[in-house]
Amino acid sequence: MGDHAGEPRRVGFLADTHSAKADGSDLPGRVLEAFAGVDLVVHLGDIGRKGILDRLLGVAPVLVPVGGNKGYVPWLEGGGESTEAPVRVITSGDHMVGLCFNLAQPDRKIVVGDDIDFGEEPLAKLLQRRFKAPVGAVAFGGTHRPVELRHEGVLFFNPGSPTLPMEGSPGAVAVLDLGGDAPRVDLVTIVPA
Questions:
Q1: CA–CA separation, 105 vs 154, rounded Å?
Q2: Given a cut of 90, is residue 4 above it in pLDDT?
Q3: Local confidence band at 1 (pLDDT 50, 70, 90 cut-offs)
Q4: What 8-state DSSP symbol labels residue 61?
Q5: Which of 10, 113, 139, 165 has the CB geometry, 3.0–4.6 Å to 38, for a possible disulfide?
Q6: How far apart, in Å, do the first and last CA atoms of the chain sit?
Q7: ω before 65 within 30° of 0 (cis)?
Q8: DSSP characters over 113-125
Q9: CB atoms within 10 A of CB 141
Q10: Tens digit of pLDDT for each residue in 10-67?
Q11: What's the rounded Cα separation, in Å, for the pair 166 and 185?
């Protein structure tokens, strides 16, 4: 990852905010509280109005998706163009975290519904092809429902949505800790179900 965030030890994740207010005031203050002390924030996608990104910059540097599933780039205050190459992996020490919005894309080898079907292909091979790195964790969005599970030793997590959770799910974000032997995620409830 670029020098803008070094090697982050704690990373805040959110997705599916679908912000409607230009100033970002529809992002709950509880999100900023949950991200206090993180080294980096990643918005996985479906941002809506971009004012929330400037609010998140008050906490830590922010990565946002670039079109066409190309990866993630730093958000510059006010939406200026980042000159950094898009990344699909965050590296911190020995840990590599794959970033994507739609876990089923680009090859539809993984099916996401009420459960996740990882298909028949060996997971390590599939993830190497997708991320060009041996990731130990994968962050994804798109379901508006927080999820944490391990499959073949890889941590998969979805922060859900802090503003538009799926019916029956809490509004949530995630904080990933990369300071230990293995990545560990904390799904933080923002709004109860």
A1: 18
A2: no
A3: very low
A4: -
A5: 10
A6: 35
A7: no
A8: SSSEE--SS-HHH
A9: 26
A10: 999 999 999 999 999 999 999 999 999 999 999 999 999 999 999 999 999 999 999 7
A11: 20
Domain boundaries along the sequence of the chain: 10-191
3-class secondary structure, 96: strand
Reported as a single tens digit per residue, the pLDDT across 128-155 is 999 999 999 999 999 999 999 999 999 9
Bridge partners of residue 41, in order along the sequence: 12, 62
**Which phi and psi angles does 78 have, rounded to 5°?**
80, 0
How far is residue 105's CA from residue 163's CA, in Å, rounded to a whole number?
A: 24
CATH number 3.30.1490.20 given to 10-191: no
Q: Is 25 helix (H, G, I), strand (E, B) or coil?
A: coil
Residue 154's identity, in one-letter code, is: V
CA distance 172 to 174: 7
**Token pair listed for 15:** 């997705």
Q: What is the mean pLDDT of the chain?
A: 92
Q: Tell me, what DSSP letter sits at residue 79?
A: G
The conformation of residue 109, written as its DSSP 8-state character, comes to: -
Give the C-alpha separation, 126 to 118, whole Å.
10
What 3-state class would DSSP assign to 2? coil
